[in-house]
Amino acid sequence: MLDSSDTAFARDSHAPHAGACVTLTFHRFGPVWARLWALAQMGASRFSLPKVPDIGAWKLCGSGANQGFIPIPNTAVAAILATWPDEATARARVAECRPFTSWRKVAEETFTVFLAPTSTRGKWAGVEPFTVSAEPARGGPVAILTRATVKPKVAMQFWKRTPSLNRAIMDDPNVVFRIGIGEVPLVQQVTFSIWPDTDTMHAFAHAKGTLHAEAIRAVREGNWFREELYARFRILGSAGTWNGDNPLETLDNAQ
User: Fold this and answer.
1) Which of 27, 167, 206, 227 has the most neighbouring CB atoms within 10 Å?
2) 15/131 Cα distance (integer angstroms)
3) What is the pLDDT of residue 13?
4) Phi/psi zone of residue 53: left (φ > 0), alpha (ψ -120 to 50 degrees), beta?
5) Residue ranges in 52-154 assigned as alpha helix (H)
6) Largest CA distance in the chain
7) What letter does residue 54 receive in the DSSP assignment?
8) pLDDT at 139
9) How does strand 21-28 pair with strand 109-122?
């Protein structure tokens, strides 16, 4: 995965909030020049993001190949995660402010999800970046973000488990959207997925005897993570497309 170029969870020191609204924006870049531009922006955007009005915590992340679930870098996909005081502010800033506008202009495709945290457990780079700001979704779609720092000495064991976990989530017909992004290659990983409802998500996460269950058990028994965070979100809305469509429209059409 691409290096995010900053290991701490950056935060605007003037922002009073810690993530009442969260945006996760994915960008897909085409030609080699555009990918090189995106790689350069992993460094340059560290200076422009703090200047965005009302932004709280933020992260720049790269991706791996095969939807980000393997450690081979995918220079075509990068993401910006940011927190805001409310949804209206988030929508305005993402639509109007650099670096969001400049990334969107160069990317072949951009997809932003607007999220309200409903539960969070753990820390990311030593801080709690999200503030629970909404009641759990009832009967509607739910998004899950997990982030972990893998202990270097067990990184290879972790990645040996990843293909099985990847197949499990890729083969599940219920998952609406899934992607793996990350910071420092091999040892700092983020997964993000959208499910049609909480029951469906729970059925996947807690089913016994599955590849996912075996992988989670190995992680827990081996104490592989130095730090981890688990957050659940209500989906407020989205903008843009991914693979030519808005993934959330699948849910709308099914209702």
Assistant:
1) 27
2) 13
3) 37
4) beta
5) 65-68, 87-96, 100-106
6) 48
7) T
8) 74
9) antiparallel
Rounded Cα–Cα distance for residues 158 and 217 (Å): 12
Contact of 137 with 164, CB cutoff 8 Å: no
The owner of tokens 């209500």 is 234
130: pLDDT strictly greater than 50: yes
Considering only CA atoms, which of 195, 209, 182 is closest in space to residue 65?
182
Q: Tell me the three state secondary structure of residue 109.
A: strand
**Residues 142 and 52: beta-carbon distance below 8 Å:** no
For helices 155-171 and 211-222, the axis angle rounded to 10 degrees is: 160
Tokens of 82: 């940011």
**DSSP-derived 3-state class of residue 241:** coil
Kindly compute the dihedral angle of the four CA atoms of residues 165, 166, 170, 173, in this order, to the nearest 10 degrees.
Answer: 10
Per-residue pLDDT tens over the stretch 197-236: 888 887 777 665 555 566 666 666 656 676 888 899 999 9
How does residue 255 score in pLDDT terms, banded at 50, 70 and 90? very low
Domain borders along the chain are: 10-243
Higher pLDDT, 152 or 133: 133
- Kindly state the tokens that stand for 238: 């989205």
Query: DSSP string of 165-230?
Result: HHHHHHH-TT--EEEEEESSTTTEEEEEEEESSHHHHHHHHH-TTSHHHHHHHHHHHHT-EEEEEE
Cα 112 from Cα 115, distance rounded (Å): 10
Candidate CATH numbers 3.30.70.100, 3.40.800.20, 3.40.50.970, 6.10.140.1670; the one for domain 10-243:
3.30.70.100
